[in-house]
Design goal:
This protein has eleven helices and twelve strands. The chain is α/β, with parallel strands linked by helices and about 325 residues long.
Length: about 325
């Protein structure tokens, strides 16, 4: 960590890569950053002092204190002008990012404390891992009783199409690796896939051991169908899928009846329902994390922002 004005710009940049914490476990003061930015943008200490309505000596003192804390010079001073050093340019860009984050934080907090009414349409898949959507919706309603909530359920592809069409504000479901960049996804919880077998089926340690079995799955084009086909390909076979259905619950129904085997989210396989045998897959078959998703280019209403914040908070509390 640099401790004198001899620190190199690279040392300064590495130091600031972890935030605006200063040397000796102290924090750089925001007013010092504002004064520094004013000098940089006004082109000198005199103009900055006039802009900030401070004495020039106070402006100079704050900049010197900031340079001493950071251990690097921020300006090159001559008799005619003041210019930024390389370290100063880095700091100015970081200052702008911090100001943007502070402004966004103020907006978020204002929204959260002033949401009295509104409407939020939420889309959710049936499989949400350990995240409890009913519990989150009840607590959100208790917290914001003036906000009208509505819920629609579907596979993730249908919900994302509804999000594109403006029919939903937020979607909660699996975040697949090929999610389009027009969406923003914030992780809520992890999920895992298991082998779902009829009761009394001999234990199986790998997907390859089921190569001769009929499979039950969601329709072609669904995320689960793609995961099954890709995992089977890695195991050296193409799965035979005579039974396609539209929900994890009906997959479990059909497997329990002995019509086939399946890969199924652990939360769906272990929830109350018809009996099935559950076997961990070796090697493991990855499942996308559960996330809350919205359009990147469509600002959320205050009520939708509050709902997004709430479900993320509830997911964090659930661990």
């Amino acid at each position: 960590m640099p401790s004198s004005l001899t620190a190199t710009p690279r040392q300064f940049q590495e130091h600031f890569a972890y935030g605006f914490s200063a040397v000796h476990d102290e924090w750089v003061e925001l007013r010092q950053l504002e004064t520094f930015a004013a000098v940089a943008r006004q082109g000198g200490f005199t103009r900055a002092a006039e802009h900030l309505r401070l004495a020039q000596s106070a402006v100079s003192a704050q900049v010197r204190a900031l340079e001493a804390e950071l251990g690097v010079p921020l300006f090159t001073r001559t008799t005619r002008r003041v210019t930024l050093t390389e370290a100063g340019e880095i700091l100015l860009s970081r200052h702008d990012r911090i100001q943007a984050e502070l402004a966004a934080t103020r907006t978020d907090l204002t929204d959260l404390t002033t949401v009295l009414r509104g409407r939020v349409t939420l889309g959710a898949t049936a499989v949400l891992g350990p995240f409890s959507l009913p519990r989150a919706l009840v607590s959100f309603h208790d917290r914001y009783p003036g906000v009208d909530l509505s819920l629609r359920s579907d596979l993730i592809a249908g919900l994302l199409a509804a999000l594109d069409a403006g029919e939903t504000d937020l979607v909660i479901g699996p975040r697949h690796a090929d999610l389009a960049t027009r969406f923003v996804a914030r992780r809520l919880a992890a999920e895992h896939l298991v082998l779902a077998l009829p009761p009394g089926h001999p234990p199986v340690t790998s997907l390859a051991g089921l190569r001769k079995e009929p499979f039950v799955c969601l329709p072609a084009g669904s995320g689960l169908h793609q995961i099954l086909v890709a995992a089977a390909r890695r195991a050296g076979f193409a799965p035979r899928i005579p039974f396609e259905t539209h929900s994890a619950a009906s997959i479990r129904d059909l497997v329990s009846a002995g019509l086939g085997v399946a890969i199924l989210a652990r939360s769906a396989a272990t929830a109350p329902g018809p009996p099935i045998a559950v076997q961990a897959a070796q090697p493991a078959i990855p499942h996308p994390p559960i996330a809350v998703i919205h359009r990147r280019d469509r600002p959320l209403s205050p009520a939708a922002r509050a709902c997004r914040h709430h479900v993320m908070e509830q997911a964090q509390l659930a661990g």
